[in-house]
Amino acid sequence: MRTSHKSLTGVVAAVAALALAGCGSTAGGGSGSSGAPGGMQVPALKALDKLGAPEGEVNVLAWPGYVEDGSNDPKVDWVSDFEKSSGCNVNIKTFGTSDEAVQLMRTGQYDVVSASGDATLRLIAAGDVEPVNTSLITNYPDIFDALKMKPWNSVNGVAYGIPHGRGANLLMYRTDLVKPAPDSWSAVFDQAGAQKGKVTAYDSPIYIADAALYLMATKPELKIKDPYALDETQLAAAVDLLKAQKANVGEYWSDYLKEVQAFKSGTSTVGTTWQVIANVAQGEKAPVEAILPKEGATGWSDTWMVGAKSQHKTCAYKLIDHLVSPKVNAQIAEYFGEAPGNKKACAETVDKNHCTTFHAADESYFSKVHYWTTPITTCLDGRTDVKCTDYATWTKAWTEIRNS
To answer: What is the CATH number of the domain that holds 278?
Structure first.
């Protein structure tokens, strides 16, 4: 993954903000509600035709670290100037899991949400968000093409959001306690017994996709083509793998700081992580390394979406455009610890190695990353002869795994 890092001030601050907010993930799925669509029956909603006069305010639902106004750290503020220039007062509410975000968006109180791929299709199918008019986002042409019009941010060729940033779920291990150095997810699955009681796994139904990804490579007879498109047989295989893994798991993690501490103390020696967590752990002198295993990995690509019931759509569009502008997108990417969505942001980062560290323009790297996508009964791999399992089913399965 990487061996060094810039000054960790911003990353640690982001982690602290996440901890204070009770957040468990950068783009997490949480283990709570279901709310998954049974299929993609998309409500007939239209995107905004043109911008009007700013409505005076915009209500934002965001991951901690994405919309900072200086209240967490006076030095971290990309909102105040926007408020002055746009005439849109920004009201910010943070959330800790994708499930929480989905529930909050159902209230119709929010104009904008930073949605991860394990939430986006649920929001679209429920009619809680509407298509976006990308021509009204001046910075849209500068967004990496590889992030546009994907299964988690578009439906039937219609864009439902503006890409913001991305990252991979990596394999982290203690270099002094896990030998030889692993290069495969087998370290947390088939070979997990070597670190019995010290394996860690992400605490979310979406983690089932990690098991499915491993089975894609090791059990070709299951014919898994997409880790988010699992029929009943394929899901059962993933569940069995995760139940077997549980015997070796010491902790299911959903908190940045707790995972850092677990790897520092050695109570966790191998498991899934994110680049930002590895950076912080290394910055605190923990002997850890993190890699993208040979099977590839799951990951996330977050999307700014507009609430279907929004009463402040001009302000919503203006804010989204601001957040994905080169300078601000760079600030967010560095503070949060991810690859920016705007390719011009790489020239604006304080750490000139940031985009290299986070593989921002490395499509060969991200070609191995299967971005979180909401499981639905319409198979995302194109199969029409079977029904796939949806997020509600995954949630029940995850509860079964955790209670086994």
So the answer is: 3.40.190.10
Q: From 260, 67, 62, select the one nearest 174 (Cα to Cα).
A: 260
In a domain, 389, yes or no: yes
Residue 198's nearest CA partner among 260, 254, 247, 258 is: 247
The answer on 195 and 156 residing in a single domain is no
Q: Tell me the per-residue pLDDT of 65-84, one tens digit each, with 9 for 90 and over.
A: 899 999 988 999 999 999 99
Does 330 share its domain with 386? no
CA distance 95 to 140: 26
Q: In this model, does residue 53 exceed pLDDT 50?
A: yes
10 by Cβ neighbours in 10 Å (0-12 / 13-18 / 19+) ranks as: buried
Give the structural domain span for 284: 167-298+374-403
The answer to whether residue 37 sits within a structural domain is yes
* Shared domain check, 339 and 328: yes
- For residue 306, give the H/E element and its range: strand 297-307
HSE-CB for 142 with a 13 A CA cutoff = 19
Predicted pLDDT at 279: 85
Minimal CA–CA distance to 326: which of 90, 78, 46?
Answer: 78
Rg (CA), the chain: 20
Q: 28-40, pLDDT tens digit by residue?
A: 333 223 333 334 6
Q: What is the pLDDT of residues 120-168, one digit of tens each?
A: 999 999 999 999 999 999 999 999 999 999 989 999 899 999 999 999 9
Q: Is residue 26 part of a domain?
A: yes
